[in-house]
Amino acid sequence: MQLNLASRKRRLVALIIDYYVITFLLVSIIFLLLGPNFIEREDDFPFLLAIISIPLGLILYFGKDSVNGISFGKWIMGIVVRKESSSVESPSLINLFVRNITLLIWPLEFIVIVFNKNKQRHGDKIAKTIVYKNPNKTKKIPRILSVIGLGIIFFAFILSFVASSLKTSNAYKLAITEIENNKEINQQVGEIIDYGWMPTGNVNITNGEGIATYDINVIGDKEEMNVQVELIKPKDGKWKITSFNY
User: Fold this and answer.
1) pTM score, two decimals?
2) Mean pLDDT of 139-158
């Protein structure tokens, strides 16, 4: 069966999609291992995890085409990697892995594709592969919905993790304690029901010293109120409130 070569545009878009998908996967793994309280960790685990993540990310990226010569990006763009000697056979896992190592110099690889008649980059030449349009590609709507769904999952995960990180910090817990013990706030809002899904603000800790700012939405059975809290943390000390406004 004669297959058409994949266009350069499709290959570039597939590469970009794969990059973001693998980055999202790697970041998700790192965040889950760190836990929501990673902001206030003072051990070397975050640093060690960052070092370990580099080879893990490379393994994921180099092995992205391992499922029948198709990565997520290639599936979205309807293209597939096949043997140079046979357009119906998927290359071996080793060849699929090896062909992606040269993507470390991907700008040069795409220059090579421009001038190669079979649109082969160095990785393809080394692994003896060619990228074709997939004759058995999935219909367009499921592929589009997959991209949209992945984007929604990505942003939902990041927002949920950030919210969880802010809420589990000792600075936030101290701010909530101050709010719950403030008689004026309780009289105005009534019984406190919730503090909203995600507080705005930030926590910054360097060498054991920290600064935190929060804008907390206090939801009561009478009304809602925004409370602005600023805190500092001396080295080897506990968080202290420096400003409390409502």
Assistant:
1) 0.74
2) 90
